[in-house]
Q: What sequence folds into this?
């Protein structure tokens, strides 16, 4: 059974992190921690939706976020990329406008 507290001589001998973890066990711990995080996130967002605690837009579920990332990757469009570059926009030259000669918003 592993101990959770180390003595000072053990920390001096092995370092603060303890003995190295085997490769497969390290991978299992990393994947397990990601799975626990996604499960907790999914549970929290589900509770928000079911209990109507607040607007779910502030805590979307992981599947919604992953779906949006995949959608952006497939469409090759990031938000805001639909606007044309400044070089592609043709601007009509109206000449110099003095401060008092500015057109009213209704005239535009």
A:
């Amino acid at each position: 059974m592993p101990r959770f507290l180390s003595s000072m001589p053990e920390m001096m001998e092995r370092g603060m992190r303890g003995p190295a973890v085997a490769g497969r066990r390290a991978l299992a711990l990393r994947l397990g921690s990601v799975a626990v995080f996604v499960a907790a996130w999914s549970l929290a967002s589900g509770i928000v939706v079911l209990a109507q605690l607040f607007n779910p837009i502030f805590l979307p579920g992981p599947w919604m976020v992953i779906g949006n990332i995949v959608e952006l990757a497939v469409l090759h469009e990031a938000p805001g990329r639909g606007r044309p570059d400044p070089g592609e926009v043709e601007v009509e030259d109206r000449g110099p406008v003095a401060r008092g000669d500015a057109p009213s918003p209704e005239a535009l």
About this structure: Residues 25-78 form one domain. The chain has a mean pLDDT of 77. The chain is about 45% helix and 0% strand. The helical segments are 8-14, 23-51, 62-75.
